[in-house]
Design brief:
alpha/beta, Membrane-bound Lytic Murein Transglycosylase D, Chain A, TIM Barrel
């Protein structure tokens, strides 16, 4: 897989000729709506040829996989082999590159369970999600939260964390739901926890682990992006990186939202800021317990920015469509490792858009490798980003359940 940044005057035909692929391959890989319309700075993934192997008489996929340091599953997947036990000699196989093995998870927007002050849980319709997880051999993880779109959740978290009786009720309810629905892990996403509740939160995590581990369930947490243990603010102070790293099975670092929907325009996930978080995190949390948080949406701010004015949130594909619609070049911030552009709409209003593309995704994957992290956690599914998924598979072997 190659990344090509469009230059002024280039066409898909010229790009395809350069890499020895077809226009259709590029259009399909990037899900381009208007292949004849490109803008300068657009980052495309190009599915270039990879290493191949011609099957010899008597060879099987196990032998071939061992030879190249890969797996039967990966060879079968990349070659779309339905029956790995039936491989004809002289078949030309594409061999996946040797890649780090990582965990990948993703949040879905309306699937978290919300706790109540008495330890109860609000119900949700998660049937379709659980069915999809089973079909794709993905571990379904139940997420519980203390916040909503209209409430920060500090009071609710305090009510739960201050009472071991309520915690027992909550954990009993969690186990009941997990057993009934087939969840295999619990993710605790308590945000805006009062600083005074920091130790109570740590003790609750230990109680959760003590209840869930004997039942065979994993426990993980979501952590605000801190650069030191002393960082001030209700979002950060009660999140004890060292204790979470010691107690739970893994953590999700929420390394996004610098470009907040109600704040001024800027990169949503600037890599320079993310590295500051990781530089601290790896000193107190085992690297094999850290999932790198990766947001997969774009934002469009009106200019000049007015404090409190909400930016529009949409997919990376929509960000590309708007750049093409308004005929503006896409720029790239080398420090934040994020693409952006500005345009003027039909009503004469100025806009600034920050998003992710193939370059920024690859830069994040390189950081995951450089820091030797457990894997990646996506926030949030539902925003198309085809370049990301192709590059993810090109960079890593994703650990799946059997």
């Amino acid at each position: 897989m190659q990344i090509h940044v469009v230059h002024p005057g280039e066409t898909l035909w010229l790009i395809a000729q350069r890499y020895g692929v077809t226009v259709t391959q590029i259009v399909t890989a990037n899900q381009l709506e208007s292949p004849s319309k490109l803008v300068s700075g657009l980052a495309l993934v190009v599915p270039t040829p990879t290493q191949t192997h011609t099957v010899q008489p008597g060879e099987n996929l196990t032998q071939i996989a061992q030879r190249y340091g890969t797996t039967v599953e990966e060879i079968s997947k990349i070659n779309q082999i339905q029956n790995p036990n039936m491989i004809l000699s002289e078949t030309i196989l594409t061999i996946p590159a040797h890649k780090p093995v990582i965990d990948v998870n993703a949040y879905t927007i309306n699937t978290g369970e919300t706790g109540a002050e008495d330890g109860g849980l609000s119900t949700i319709d998660d049937t379709a999600m659980l069915q999809s997880a089973a079909a794709e051999r993905v571990v379904p993880v139940m997420a519980i939260t203390n916040f909503s779109a209209t409430a920060a959740g500090s009071s609710l978290a305090h009510s739960v964390l201050a009472s071991t009786d309520i915690q027992d009720v909550l954990l009993t309810n969690i186990l009941k739901v997990m057993k009934e629905k087939g969840y295999q892990g619990l993710n605790i996403d308590f945000e805006n926890v009062l600083p005074a509740d920091r130790e109570n939160y740590n003790q609750f995590l230990q109680r959760a682990v003590d209840r869930l581990h004997p039942e065979g369930y994993s426990v993980s947490t979501a952590l605000a992006p801190k650069i030191s243990d002393e960082q001030k603010g209700v979002l950060y102070e009660a999140h004890d990186y060292a204790e979470h790293g010691r107690i739970v099975d893994f953590v999700v670092l929420m390394t996004y939202e610098w470009g907040y929907r109600l704040g001024p325009p800027q990169a949503i996930s600037p890599l320079n800021e993310i590295k500051r978080v990781l530089d601290y995190a790896v000193t107190v949390i085992p690297r094999n317990k850290i999932l790198f948080g990766f947001q997969i949406y774009a934002r469009d701010w009106l200019l000049p920015h007015v404090q409190g004015q909400e930016a529009e949130t949409f997919s990376q594909q929509e960000a590309i469509r708007r750049a093409i619609q308004y005929g503006v070049a896409i720029q790239y911030d080398p420090i934040a490792q994020s693409p952006f552009y500005r345009y003027t709409d039909a009503e004469g209003r100025n806009h600034e858009v920050w998003f992710e593309d193939a370059r920024s995704a690859q830069a994040k994957f390189d950081v995951v490798k450089d820091y030797n992290l457990r894997g990646i956690s996506y926030w949030v599914l539902g925003y198309p980003f085809p370049q990301n998924w192709l590059l993810l598979e090109d960079n890593f072997t994703i650990r799946k359940i059997r």
